[in-house]
């Protein structure tokens, strides 16, 4: 610690506040989604990297609960879209409506103008409607009638899909998948977590106050500061070269039809920076890159006749990690 006349420097004070805010968010989300510590950290890393999240899991595992908790945890506005085959692009982005009194067109913003957008079962809506999110997710703006409309600086998409029920579903196109930072499965909670869930449900029904229930810890401004701090996490050239080697290995693998794109590579680095920050470091190690490989690659690798997890394991084993001191 740098000491000057017994005081803490402004930089150290800011870092301390950021670390406290980050831990508060972690504690809050862990208190909402019980027994899922690693999954919560990956969700926060996705949020800090300014990416978007695809939840690919069975019904009833807490996907919607998690989305609501994130919005509450950052004091952000949540918008929810139930994706169905008859959903139109304007139902997501908004539309212009002619006002008979003013004789002018007025823009009516859609649910995309929120801080957190929950797109329930995104693969249930048509590719045309799915494409309404492409510009929003990549550029944080939508263009309507030739006019760009900026979205929230913290705009965060959480999309869900059910991996076992494909009837009436439309596979997400590669361009859509590549705009997500990670794909995550929450999975069923363990036995102790299930017991705590039942106990909490009883308390909620009987209106008993739960003093342990966490409160919303952050503001949107706090979140932006944390995102800026994550972007400033150092990436050594050897670590960057390691990441590039892995990306090129994904393109050269015989079982991979579509490897990691440059956008995917940048997303992988950003998530690695956020992951290092969650570990309390201001630099990325090869271990950080490897630990987030599965959620980052599983959303964007298109394979031929082999499971994505097996292909990712082979890619990671094919490239030696550099020594990092």
Automatic annotation (TrEMBL):
Coiled coil: none annotated. Residues 1-21 are annotated as: Disordered. Gene3D superfamilies: Magnesium chelatase subunit I, C-Terminal domain, P-loop containing nucleotide triphosphate hydrolases. CDD domains: AAA. InterPro entries: ATPase_AAA-3, CbbQ/NirQ/NorQ/GpvN, ChlI/MoxR_AAA_lid, P-loop_NTPase. Pfam families: AAA_3, AAA_lid_2. Residues 52-181 form the ATPase AAA-3 domain. Residues 9-21 have a biased composition (Low complexity). Residues 249-304 form the ChlI/MoxR AAA lid domain. GO terms for molecular function: ATP binding; ATP hydrolysis activity. PANTHER family: METHANOL DEHYDROGENASE REGULATOR (PTHR42759:SF5), MOXR FAMILY PROTEIN (PTHR42759). This is ATPase family associated with various cellular activities (AAA). It comes from Stieleria neptunia. The lineage of its organism: Bacteria, Pseudomonadati, Planctomycetota, Planctomycetia, Pirellulales.
